[in-house]
Amino acid sequence: MATLSAAEIDDISARYPEVFAGSQRKRRTGWLVGLGIASYLVFAWWFFAVGSVLAGGNWGIAGIYLADWVSYEIRPTVEFRGDRLDVTYARFSTYQADRQPDWVTLEPAGAPPPGVEGVAERAVIGIGRDNSLDITPRLVTVVRGNETLVIDIVPDERVTARGALPQWAEQKTPGEKLIVSFGFAGRAEIEADEVKIRHRFFGWENFVFDGNSPFWGKSAGEVLSLLLSGPRLKPEMSNAALAWDNIWNNSEWQHGDVWTKLLQTIVMAFVGTVFASALAFPLAFVAARNITPNRFANQLFKRFFDFLRSVDMLIWALFFTRAFGPGPLAGISAIFFTDTGTFGKLYSEALENIDDKQREGIRSVGAAPSLVQRYGVVPQVLPVFLSQSLYFWESNTRSATIIGAVGAGGIGLKLWEAMRTNSDWENVAYMVLLILIVVFVFDNISNVLRRRLIGRTVID
Fold this sequence. Notes:
The protein is an alpha+beta fold. It contains 16 helices and 13 strands. It folds into 2 domains: 131 residues, no CATH class; 205 residues, MetI-like (MetI-like fold).
């Protein structure tokens, strides 16, 4: 391909100035548009102080929250009781004074009072690999890898470290609380009256059986042996029935309640979508100009559809929660109102774009008006109507989760309750995973049905 010289280009531009003028205008317009976009982005960055927001963000907290989704913590507290130590756990923790984890070692403090457990003169707590805390009433020795930090305790008065603090230890005020970090494995807060330990483990604790189950702590082989041939753990029911009851009523993960709420969400989306489709179908015929030649009726129903869909589904959910109280009825009503407006608009527009030749052919043989609509209009639009309804059914499964969080029932409310505790993020991850699976399944079902209704070529 020959390359034009500068002289030849100048000669051509002199002979055809209008062509080159248009090209130059387009080039200038493109540069001006690009400059305008760049200027707007710079202004937005400055006006909203994006740089300061990014710099001031507490990214460490985000990392902790992310870790909480895929891990859990066991939190023993070692309290100083004179010359003794008292190891305690949260009220509903799997571990208690009479059930210590294997990484907590207690050296007995002589003869403890009757019925008192978890009391010792010394506690050795391993946190991850090569990390430990050796705790006595007046001395805490922290080992992290090859480094050792010795901390003197004056009960109820002060905490003092011997020597300079390593990078993994922090004490904001001399004599006050001292924090040591072991990375992902956990941390410890050493105070003058107690030591709070947070030991983190990867995974979901007690996902199958909680600490109250007779199957808790047993290996998969032991559980299977009990299910198949072991003696009954409860005389009134088989081991298989007992295992299912323990899983379904797991007090920590609440599988039964979560799955019931998930089914409630699916039913909300389905019923709300079906009712909206059923009501919007006949109303759309009145709103379509080519079907109902009454301008007042057309405008009345189109504005009615606009009103229903202009109010967001979340606002409708708040309104119906106030009217009916918390529960799935409020969620169904919110989906029904919003989708009636949306379907009415979509259906009426589809009706206004039909091919009138088919309708005229049915009318030419003297068919009644109802038969004209039945055989001349419905076959054209029904696949489109069903396709749109199926898409919104899948979409409403996601929306039902959101409106559930404001009291409309379903798994959304359960999810919001878990998030509000700020400590059950593994439960949040569990419910989010279930929602993702349900949306994935319903999306594929919707796609398959739409392909069968309106053809693979239209969908693809």
